[in-house]
């Protein structure tokens, strides 16, 4: 196959990208995105500050621009993200305790109702663990509402849209030896044992010199899959975009039956949140980088 999406589909997987609503008027951008990818994540538009700027007043205008572009171009959509310490609107940043807990629940219900039956996977909770060696939860206003905030979010999400796969999503959880990975593993194992509704784990996979790719990523993916959840690579970008590393990540997903697919976090280097690291598959002029060819070959079994 000659595109990433079609090549991934040969094994029942998808290949996606983050899409920014503000770039949908850029024809170089949209022609690459329409051609190559069959899954879309809104880069910012489905986040809390965008979708509920005032408490109880939902605004899906930017989110729907991304959603509608995706569907009109035959793509599936991953929802990102419902409960997160970051990109909270001001009113939510100022809440705590039971009022914040209720606001989180109401937010999940409100957004999931709007997209009920339309979203393949939802990142229900994003980035709840601390970096470093502690293996602790990240401190945040949500965490301070009680350690059970994550499972409450997942139970709320399951009731709101039973058709969506419900994911926990984080970064620096790709290396099996990291404390953060082990902490996330313990949470997912506990959720499966106690019947908390979780279907998938998203590995953001923002690799750079500080958090480099390690070949034990495949072990990590398989160990989580063995807990009874699907896994996905949700925000892939790699500093310098080495073709060999991109190929290895792709092969890691292909090697794990429950790896649903791969999403890269943007189209061209100039679209990246860290464009100075040139971490993506397309040059600024829209041409394909060596990493693109490496990923395509890997998806085609080469
Ligand atoms: O929209 C405003 C614009 O009006 C304003 O003029 C401009 C000035 O700074 O800011 C614009 O908002 C920016 C927004 O991106 C849209 O471009 C924010 O400042 C900026 O903080 C925001 O960055 C996003 C970041 O999440 C925020 O946390 C990145 O685009 C986005 O790629 C990044 O994505 C995250 C994932 O959601 C979670 N995992 C990590 C990943 C990378 O940080």
Which residues form runs of ≥5 with pLDDT under 50?
none
Which sequence of SSEs, written as H and E, runs from N to C? HEHEHHEHHEHEHEEHEHEH
Q: Report the total helices.
A: 11
List how many beta strands DSSP finds.
Answer: 9
Q: Numbering strands along the chain, what is their spatial order in the largest sheet?
A: 1-2-3-4-5-6-8-9
- Taken as a percent bin, the fraction of beta residues is 15-25%
Oligomer: single chain
| Biggest pleated sheet | 8 strands, parallel, barrel
**Termini distance?**
12 Å
What is the structural class? Answer: alpha/beta
Outline, from the CA principal axes?
Answer: globular
- Distinct small-molecule ligands in the complex: ligand G3I
Q: Radius of gyration from the CA trace?
A: 18 Å
User: Helicity level, as a percent range?
Assistant: 25-40%
Average pLDDT number = 98
Describe the structure.
It is an enzyme of class 3 (hydrolase). The active site is at 235 (nucleophile). This is Beta-xylanase. There is one protein chain. With 302 residues, this protein is α/β, with parallel strands linked by helices. Helices cover 38% and strands 17% of the residues. The protein is built from 11 helices and 9 strands. Strands 1-2-3-4-5-6-8-9 form an 8-stranded parallel beta barrel, surrounded by 5 helices. Strand 1, helix 2 and strand 2 (39-42) form a beta-alpha-beta unit. The N and C termini lie close together (12 Å). The model has no long low-confidence stretch (mean pLDDT 98).
């Amino acid at each position: 196959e000659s595109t990433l999406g079609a090549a991934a589909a040969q094994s029942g997987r998808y290949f996606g990208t983050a899409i920014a609503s503000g770039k949908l008027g850029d024809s170089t951008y949209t022609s690459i995105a329409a051609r190559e990818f069959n899954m879309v994540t809104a880069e910012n538009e489905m986040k809390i500050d965008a979708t509920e700027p005032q408490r109880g007043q939902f605004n899906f205008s930017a989110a729907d621009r991304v959603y509608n572009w995706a569907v009109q171009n035959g793509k599936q959509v991953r929802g990102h993200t419902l409960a997160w310490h970051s990109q909270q609107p001001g009113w939510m940043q100022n809440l705590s305790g039971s009022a914040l807990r209720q606001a989180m629940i109401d937010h999940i219900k409100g957004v999931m109702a709007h997209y009920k039956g339309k979203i393949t996977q939802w990142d229900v909770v994003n980035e709840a663990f601390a970096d470093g060696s502690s293996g602790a939860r990240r401190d945040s206003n949500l965490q301070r509402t009680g350690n059970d905030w994550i499972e409450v979010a997942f139970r709320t999400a399951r009731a709101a849209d039973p058709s969506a796969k419900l994911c926990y999503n984080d970064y620096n959880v790709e290396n099996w030896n990291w404390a953060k990975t082990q902490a996330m593993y313990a949470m997912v194992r506990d959720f499966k044992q106690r019947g908390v509704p979780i279907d998938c784990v998203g590995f953001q996979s923002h690799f750079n010199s500080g958090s480099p790719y390690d070949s034990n990523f495949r072990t990590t993916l398989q160990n989580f899959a063995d807990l009874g959840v699907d896994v996905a690579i949700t925000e892939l970008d790699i500093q310098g975009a080495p073709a060999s590393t991109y190929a290895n990540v792709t092969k890691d997903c292909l090697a794990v039956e429950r790896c649903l697919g791969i999403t890269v976090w943007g189209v061209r280097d100039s679209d990246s949140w860290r464009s100075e690291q040139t971490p993506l598959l397309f040059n600024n002029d829209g041409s394909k980088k060596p990493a693109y060819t490496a990923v395509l070959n890997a998806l085609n079994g080469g």
